[in-house]
Amino acid sequence: MHAQSIGILGLGAYLPEKVLTNFDLEKIVDTTDEWIRTRTGIHERRVSEKGIATSDLASKASLEALQNANLKPEDLDLIICATITPDTLFPSTACYIQNKIGAKCPGFDISAACSGFPYALTIANGLVKSGMYKKILVIGAEVLSNFINWKDRSTCVLFGDGAGAAIIGEVNNGHGIIATYLGADGAQTEILKIPGGGSAIPLTVETLEAGKQYVYMEGKEVFKLAVRSMCDAIEKVVELGGLRIEDIDCLIPHQANIRILDAVTDRAGIPSEKVFINVNRYGNMSAASTPVALYEAVKQGMIKKGSNVVLVAFGSGLTWAACLIKW
Ligand code: UT7
């Protein structure tokens, strides 16, 4: 007989200490604090020191999650790392993390951009439910600062570095992950991507000079699709879980832009006091945004035992995803 309820046993987060404010950015590119705040809601973001890789941030978040779950690295059965800024193209960042935290289990990465954490949570939920594994470490971690063109004002003001981690396993009946929903539209691969460095456009002097190694985004198009796909994901996951929108106690959305979040919650009919926001402090941390937000919402008491929590994200791919969790 396999587990009836699968949920989160412990959470962890790690943010680099170095803060980069909008005023700091005014000195680097032609922008203003006022433009960034009014168009995005971002006031500051964290950036890693030189030489720090995604697995470094991920390992710190993972060790805290293990501690909060009262577990040791050797108790883990699997590591799944969601990232678009891996330490290397291969091996996987999960393998670097395994070594750094002293775990012995298998591990792999998934690529679903900003939707990576709810995607990974969905995989972990299925694997524990099947009885294959008991304890899975799920991580969303990014060092985006190494993949941003710091001369491009339309993207460099948006992103930040960070990591969040969760341990997935059996929880008390009636709690845990109630429903998950994943979506993707491969017709939209061109509007948000790092074009170079893969097999399609390997890095050469020419592609490096053309900046193909950096994040490219058609912001307006992404904005429109973000609102539509997040609203869709919220509605679907709530319906799959047999609840109504009014039953949501806390919404943990991907933190890309405050205007996107306002539009989503407005359209979905969720009051703003139920929505957790930290985009002002960290910017868009891609796969790290939702686990860090979840960690902070629990820590600040916004999520309590019994709360119905919806995690929702969208990102490059395009991908979108939602998880409904009874805390
Ligand atoms: O995690 C997934 C990812 N991404 C997103 O969710 C991002 C979605 N998109 C957005 O959040 C918004 O589209 C942006 C914040 C990226 C841009 O906001 P916008 O209201 O769509 O602005 P815009 O791109 O239409 O640009 C308006 C103006 C332009 O000038 P002109 O052509 O009107 O003269 C830009 O050149 O603002 C200019 N601009 C800037 N000005 C000052 C663009 N970036 C900046 C900047 N500082 N940093």
Topology at a glance:
Elements lengths: L5 E9 L4 E3 H5 L6 H8 L3 E3 L7 H15 L9 E5 L10 H9 L5 E4 L5 H15 L5 E7 L10 H4 L5 E9 L5 E9 L7 E2 L11 H5 L6 E2 L1 H22 L9 E4 L4 H11 L10 H4 L6 H11 L8 E8 L3 E8 L1
Parallel strand pairs: 4-5, 4-6, 11-12
Antiparallel strand pairs: 1-7, 2-3, 6-7, 8-13, 9-10, 12-13
Helix pairs in contact: 3-4, 8-9
Bound molecules: oxa(dethia)-CoA.
Oxa(dethia)-CoA (UT7) binds next to helix 2, helix 6 and helix 8.
Keywords:
Peroxisomal Thiolase, Chain A, domain 1; binds oxa(dethia)-CoA; 11 helices; 327 residues; four-stranded mixed β-sheet; five-stranded mixed β-sheet; 13 strands; 22% strand; single chain; 33% helix
What report would you give on this structure?
The chain is of the alpha/beta class. It folds into two domains: 5-174, Peroxisomal Thiolase, Chain A, domain 1 (3-Layer(aba) Sandwich); 178-326, Thiolase/Chalcone synthase (Peroxisomal Thiolase, Chain A, domain 1), CATH 3.40.47. The protein is built from eleven helices and 13 strands. Strands 1-7-6-4-5 form a five-stranded mixed β-sheet, with helices on both faces. A four-stranded mixed β-sheet has the order 8-13-12-11, with helices on both faces. Strand 4 (78-82), helix 4 and strand 5 (107-110) form a beta-alpha-beta unit. Helix 3 (54-68) packs across helix 4 (93-101) and helix 8 (219-240) packs parallel to helix 9 (258-268). The model has no long low-confidence stretch (mean pLDDT 97). The structure holds oxa(dethia)-CoA. Oxa(dethia)-CoA binds next to helix 2, helix 6 and helix 8.
